[in-house]
Amino acid sequence: MTERAPEKQAPKILCSGIAVQDILMRVENFPSAGAKIAASEFIITGGGCAANAAVAIARLNGRAAFAGPLGGANDEVSNRIITDLNAEGIDCSGAVRVDGGTASVSLILLDAAGEKTIATRRGVKLGNVLPVDARQLVADTDAVLVDNRFPEFVSAVCRAAQVRKIPIVIDLDQATKVDDPLLALGTHVVASTEALRGTTGLDDHSAGLKRLAEHVSGFVAVTDGPNGLYWLDRGNVRHMPAFKVKVIDSLGAGDAFHGGFTLALAEGRDLNDAMRFAGATAALKCTKFGGAAGAPTRAEVEAFLERQS
């Protein structure tokens, strides 16, 4: 009798950076000052770039871990964040709980057109935290994905990942200096349109990517919502259109893209295939209400891509 070969384990991705709590309500129109309005849908869910990406990876059958600063044991918001991530099968042993610290909470109103109004209570005492042991965090990972909300924390993770020569995907989510040392640590840097503009001072995607590439040796790209993805290929800007879907809620779509992209790279897919897989993940997320809670499953993404071919 021939022994069956052991099944190959899914790639493990470490997502490092910010985790928050989102309180999301769907309304017909945004209220005027002093007005009371009805909400048709409501959810309390996890948020934050790294945490959202970890959820996306877990839904896509990857092994996801989260590492980042959170409030201490008395911070109920941080406790709920951990509980929700654990419920998705995400390893949160890399979270650093800060005594007296608090995680951020956002109240998000989403109108019928998909536009968002957001109010945030910022977290406190989390800005200068470092991982307990960055080398241990990446010891058994196949790729890392970091946002740039806590640069000191994630830079330590990236440097440890560099030693292991694994993919390092940086989600450039907020504007920074174009020569930010964190960006130079990435093998792949994927920016939002707003962050690319704020970082380079340039409105044009092509010019912005070329400016960014002066400081990043690896792959650089920018996501532009319904307009798709632009990336630099040997000095030339290329474009992948977004998949056409009925958009219900785009909150967390960029994070879903980053999660799908990083997982695809860790699976050994080429860049074009990884971008297509990520684009489908982001598109399907947009069809469901609930921020990160609307991230699609692997089966949903594969079925969607099959219909596109």
What does this structure look like?
33% of the residues lie in helices and 23% in strands. β12 and β13 form a beta hairpin. α8 runs antiparallel to α9. The longest helix has 15 residues.
Task: Summarize the structure in short.
The protein has one domain (12-30, 38-112, 141-298): 3-Layer(aba) Sandwich (UDP-N-acetylmuramoyl-L-alanine:D-glutamate ligase), CATH 3.40.1190.
CATH fold type: UDP-N-acetylmuramoyl-L-alanine:D-glutamate ligase
Overall morphology: globular
Which percent bin holds the helix content?
Answer: 25-40%
Mean pLDDT: 96
Can you tell me the CATH architecture? 3-Layer(aba) Sandwich
Low-confidence stretches: none
The number of strands is 14
Oligomer: single chain
- CATH class group: Alpha Beta
Instruction: Please name the fourth-level CATH homologous superfamily.
Output: Ribokinase
Adjacency order of strands in the biggest sheet = 4-1-9-10-11-12-13-14
Summarize the helix and strand pattern as letters. Answer: EEEHEEHEEEHEHEHEHHEEEHHH
Calculate the terminal CA-CA distance, rounded to whole Å. 40 Å
What profile does the largest beta sheet have? Answer: 8 strands, mixed
Q: DSSP strand (E) fraction?
A: 15-25%
- What radius of gyration results from the CA coordinates? 19 Å
**Class per helix and strand makeup:** alpha/beta
* Count of separate DSSP helical elements: 10
Number of domains: 1
